[in-house]
Specification:
Strand order of the largest sheet: 8-9-10-11-6-5-12
Shape: globular
Order of helices and strands: EEEEEHEEEEEEE
Strand content: 35-45%
Amino acid sequence: MIESSMISGSCLCEKVTYKITGRIGDIIHCHCKTCRKAHGAAFSSVASVQNDEFEVIGREHLQSFESSQGKHRYFCSNCGTQVYAQRENAEHVILRLGSLDDDPLSPETKHIWVSEKASWYSINSHLPEMDKFE
């Protein structure tokens, strides 16, 4: 994790914005079926941010969907942008890096859930590949 100064992000229509005042965790690329379906893409790039360092503006425009037991995905009700996810009782959010407006200043570290990877996508990376989340 690398210390950030002030990093911001937003949804496509900018009704939901956020500010990060602390640290952003290492970047992980998730290939699980739910991330692929939720994002309509080969994988989702994510990083953790502590709850008390993550401020959302426009929260009234957020909707959520419980994609697996205890895990809620938060997205803009107007444009559909996935902003973050959070597990019940977690002290951090799982930030969807596609919603960033600034460089997260964090290194990418691995691909996870490669066992569920889209058949039409080839990983061309030097990063470790994990069959599940480990």
